[in-house]
Write a structure and sequence with these properties.
Blueprint: E1 6-10, E2 31-32, E3 35-36, H1 37-47, E4 52-57, H2 64-68, E5 77-82, H3 88-96, E6 107-112, E7 115-117, H4 121-131, E8 135-141, E9 176-185, H5 186-189, H6 200-210, E10 215-219, E11 224-226, H7 230-242, E12 257-259, E13 264-265, E14 270-272, E15 275-277, E16 282-283, E17 288-290, E18 293-294, E19 299-300, E20 305-307, E21 310-311, E22 316-317, E23 322-324, E24 327-328, E25 333-334, E26 339-341, E27 345-346, E28 351-352
Parallel strand pairs: 1-4, 1-6, 4-5, 8-10, 12-15, 13-16, 14-17, 15-18, 16-19, 17-20, 18-21, 19-22, 20-23, 21-24, 22-25, 23-26, 24-27, 25-28
Antiparallel strand pairs: 2-3, 6-9, 7-11, 8-9
Length: 363
Amino acid sequence: MTEAKEAILLVGGKGTRLRPLTVHTPKPMVPAAGVPFLTHQLARARAAGVEHIVLATSYLAEVFEPYFGDGSSLGLHIEYVTEQEPLGTGGAIRNVAPKLSSGPDEPVLIFNGDILTGLDIRALVTSHTVSGADVSLHLTRVEDPRAFGLVPTDATGRVTAFLEKPQTPEEIVTDQINAGAYIFRRSVIDTIPSGRPVSVERETFPGLLASGAHLQGMVDSTYWLDLGTPGAFVRGSADLVLGRAPSPAVPGRCGDRLVLPTARVAPDAKLTGGTVVGAGAVVGAGARIEGSTILENAIVEPNTVITDSLVGAGARIGSRTVLAGAVIGDGAHVGADNELRDGIRIWCGATLPDGSVRFSSDQ
C-alpha cells in the first residue's frame, strides 16, 4: 500500500515570531497566495490520497472549524482536537490518537502547520512501507544546518542519530535536517506518554532510536521553507503564486500576480514577483508592488512602493510611502511619505503620521 489514509496536522503553535500577523489569527490561518496557509497543506495531503485529517489545535483553536467545517469542501473528513495546555509536538500527536481509525501497522502521516514543501508524500509512504520502518522522516538538505536538528543516515537511509543544533564545525556531520513531515506506524503513536508535554524531536525520536526501533530517512530536496518569520511567510506566499512551490489550492493561475475577486487595482499600478492582493483591497494609481502580500480590505494609496512586505487586513498605506521588508499589522494606518525598511513591524491598529518615519529597524 502506498497511501496513508489518515494524517495528523500540528497547528497549535502561537506563531510568536510572526507577530503582529498572528495577534488575531493563528499562524496556519494567515493567508498565503490568497487562502489560509493551512488550505495548501490540506489540499496537498488530499492529492496524495489522505482521506481523514485530525487537526491538533491550541492557540486560537476556535477559528479553524468555522472555516473548514467537516472538510467535505476539500474532499476530506476533518476532525479537531484542542489542547487545554501545551503538550509539545509529541504530546499533541498522542493527544489526538483516539481519533485515528488505522490499524496497528498502517501508516499515519504527520506534518507541521508551518512548513511549505514540495515533498512527494506518496514517495515518503512508499519508502516507509518498503523499508518496514517504525517511523519515516522527510529530510532535506540545507547549506547552513546550525539552526536545525541534524539527522545523519547510513547507506540504506536508516537514521543513525539525532543531533540537536550543532555549534562547531566538528559537530556538523551532515547537511540533512528534519524537515517536519513523518510517517508513523500507528502502534508507535500509542507508545508516546499521554497527558504531559513531549517533544517528538528531543524525546520521542531519540528514545525510539535508543530502543532499537527502525527510523528511516528519505531525503527530498524539492522546495522547502519554514514559514516561521514574516519575511519567510511573505516569500512563501510569493513562491506559491509564482509556481515555485506546488499547491493545488492556489485560487487562480500561477504568474507574477494574484488579484482576488472584488479587489480593485488601478490600471497603471505594477504588481510583480508573486504579489497577492486580497479580496476588497484597493491599490491606487502608480503604485509598484513586488513580492508582497496585501491582505483583504487593505488600502494602498497612489504612488507607494512596496517590496517583500505584508500589509495586514484593513490597513492603510499612504501615498508615496516606501515599504521594504516591512510588516504592517491589521488595521494599522501608515501615513504618506514614510519609509519603513529592514524587518520593521507596525503593530495592529497603530497609526504613523505623514512623513514621521525615515528609519529602519531589525527588531
